[in-house]
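== Sequence, structure tokens ==
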Amino acid sequence: MNHYLHFVRVDENKCLGRMKCMRVCPTQAIRVRGGKAKIDDEKCIDCGECITSCPSGAITPLTDPFGELTRFRHTVAVPSPALFAQFGQKITPGKILNGLKKLGFDDAYDLALSCGEVSFALLEYLRENSETKPLIINTCPTVVRLIQVKYPSLINHITPIDIPREIAAREVKQRKSRQYGLKEKEIGAFYITPCPAKMISIKQPAEKEKSYLDGAISISDIYGPLHATMENIDNEESDESVDNLCILGLGWAMAGGISRTLKLKNSLTVSGLPEILKVFDDMERGSLQHIDFIEAYSCPQGCIGGSLTVENLYISYNKILRLIEELELKKIKRCPDVKEVRKKYSEGYFFKRHKLRPRPLKPLNDDLTKAIKKRKEIEKIYEKLPKIDCGACGSPTCEAFAEDVVKKESSLLDCVFMLPKKLRGLSKELSELLNKTKSINETGKNNNKSDAKGKKNEIK
């Protein structure tokens, strides 16, 4: 694939070139040129770090508008379990699902049920694949794309089980098609997303041509209308109990939730891209082979900390945790039937149909000899630089700046530390030129004096 879609855009009218976005980008996809941030499509993994860090609000996500619903004869909302954590403790998931239907969707699907099924499927896969360690959950598209771009050697560690939102959309379209006699393309499934990365996984999946989901609406966009709608819902209209929730599914909303609900004893949970980079670096060095399973989320504390959420992530974490604890105390058993999941698993129901592949960056040159020559040029320029990664040049690191210079995307004089050297060099050249000019002038004067003296002697 040569062209990559992105749902993060820079409003140049608002951008003040403060470089915070450039410094937090995990794949060094951002440069600041002419006082404006520029995003490299090839390197960007749509993590949303730049959105949350921009002090000017110049970087924003592109989401699907509510108007997209009119394209379909029947619409279904498929909310992330993180949506359940965005409202007060007294507002149950049942009321939220009912609110989505009152808001304009024909139906709302409880994704926690599919998450529960996939949890069991993951457990089966972990039992069958004890040799590949550690296995990495693929629920976070940013983590998947980070591995494709920056850690391609770890691709085989990503679990091949399809993600719950895709399984849910596939299932709901098939079910509604039979129920209403509609074609599947007439049924629109919309994900209510906590982050922009999920939009990319829908519009341009990493491992297949097309998603079963038809669009994504951000939690921040739907929060206000949904909150107002729920205020008009009577308790009798909504399910105020939590007895019908899937405990395994709720765990998918927060970091460590899957390992907790499955009671995995030898797992590792990491959230936030800086920490993920450290863990993946250790994996490449082979120092984590004693770990069975890794939950990795680009957003802090998992999906509840997504850049498109509304509630404080610690309050959200507390609500999900309290829901899980309540279900654990009640010993609710409504989660998917284990025998049914195992049957589906053996039939390949949960597996992705296409293999995930690396997304390598373009080489410096298609010609190997020229590429090696450019690499040597980069190393030569890098040795001249201060190696303090200040970012004042508009590149995130000195090494990235050296590469930008070789690619002719920047000038060596953009480095503030190289400018004094250049000025000193120019000063020296100017001084030498002045001395040379002075010498020539003095020689000319002496010659003129000699000529004048010679003429006087001739007159005498």
Observations:
- The longest strand covers residues 187-193.
- The first helix runs from residue 20 to 24.
